UniProtKB/TrEMBL annotation:
Segments forming domain 3-dehydroquinate synthase C-terminal: 176-317
Domain 3-dehydroquinate synthase N-terminal: 62-174
GO MF annotation, one: metal ion binding
Name assigned to this protein: 3-dehydroquinate synthase
Organism encoding this protein: Cellulophaga fucicola
UniProt entry tagged with the keyword Lyase: yes
Phylogenetic placement of the source organism: Bacteria, Pseudomonadati, Bacteroidota, Flavobacteriia, Flavobacteriales
Record-level GO cellular component terms: cytoplasm
Length: 353
């Protein structure tokens, strides 16, 4: 599978990923190689990963607790202390072996330690393969508020090794698949239609590649999210609000990222139908796809009121306005759309029917 070239790095796949990593480590002559894992990737992914690295390098394994709840500045402080205690210097490298929490947090830690050391992303979840590890966004949450602190900084390389998906439960695969569906909605109707036919998650390599190409193409045109890159946030304005609320709520089961974004994409499809010309047929097709794959999340009126309070923290906001990315058609977006509070409530009413 051909590598995907970004601005200053490449995304490599499967066997070629290991070949490129070994070549890079040999040439770079790092003083130390730090591998950041959580308890799951330490057990299920690290042994096979290490078995494919050839060369006598000075390794240190750093383990953090798994889960979005640990994607915090407090965890970063712990990792920075460990790096200092283990004599990391500016010629060290951080390999982030894990899902979106590991690649986001690890990239941020590396980007800020001693004003920046090299890092390499090795995503092990479907979500991180097609989204979190590509594009240079790093960072952590601020309490339950998603990705409030971070920097855009590019890795030295991204290694997508699809065999790691065998370690995941089906719920995690569905979560990542939501981001792939989003790529079709914002950029490629044909891809959206193809994904709607997917029922076997054991045969995703081609689609993972297509999603990486779509995201990389957008990022290459707008690396710092001034205009076009905002389209990658379709479904995320309301989706992140839902995710944050459920993360903090004691009365609701926490949603995975893709599960919350699936809700957000239905809600924002309704807004698109009312404001940017998305057809009734497309709206109903989008709702049917996500409800069939992800089921419905139940919201009380009080839940909805509380969810909407999170919108003021969205990263796309500007000058006091909450800016949405909405669909004109399947495959084409409009950015910076302002939505009335009345329509936001109506979007939840549509979702619940």
């Amino acid at each position: 599978m051909q590598s995907v070239s970004a601005n200053t790095y490449s995304v490599h796949f499967n066997d070629k990923a290991y070949t490129e990593l070994n070549t890079h480590l040999e040439k770079a002559n790092y003083s130390k190689v730090f591998i950041l894992v959580d308890e799951n990737t330490h057990q299920h992914c690290l042994p096979s990963f290490m078995s494919q690295i050839f060369g006598d390098y000075n390794y240190e394994i750093i383990e953090i607790e798994e889960g979005e709840i640990n994607k915090t500045i407090e965890t970063c402080v712990q990792v920075w202390h460990v790096l200092s205690e283990l004599d990391a210097d500016r010629k060290s490298v951080m390999i982030n072996l894990g899902g979106g929490v590991i690649t986001d947090l690890g990239g941020f830690v590396a980007s800020t330690f001693k004003r920046g050391i090299d890092f390499i992303n090795v995503p092990t979840t479907l979500l991180s393969m097609v989204d979190a590890s590509v594009g240079g966004k790093t960072g952590v949450d601020l309490g339950s508020l998603k990705n409030q602190v971070g920097v855009i900084n590019l890795p030295k390389m991204v290694l997508v090794i699809s065999s790691f998906l065998e370690t995941l439960e089906e719920r995690q695969l569905h979560s990542g698949f939501a981001e792939m569906l989003k790529h079709g909605l914002i950029r490629d109707k044909k891809y959206w239609n193809e994904l709607n036919l997917v029922s076997d998650f054991n045969k995703l390599d081609e689609f993972i590649y297509d999603s990486v190409v779509i995201k990389n193409d957008v990022v290459m045109q707008d690396p710092t999210e001034q205009n076009l890159r905002k389209i990658l946030n379709y479904g995320h304005t309301l989706g992140h609000a839902v995710e944050s609320y459920f993360l903090e709520s004691e009365s609701h089961k926490t949603l995975l990222h893709g599960e919350a974004i699936a809700v957000g994409m239905v809600l924002e499809a309704y807004l698109s139908n009312k404001l940017t010309g998305l057809s009734d047929d497309s709206l109903n097709a989008i709702k049917k796809t996500f409800i069939n794959r992800y089921g419905k999340v139940s919201f009380t009126d009080e839940d909805i009121k509380n969810i909407l309070t999170y919108l003021k923290f969205d990263k796309k906001n500007s000058h006091g306005n909450i800016n949405f990315v909405l669909l004109k058609t399947i495959g084409e977006c409009q950015i910076d759309v302002i939505v009335s509070e009345d329509l936001l409530y109506k979007s939840f009413a549509y979702y619940k029917v």
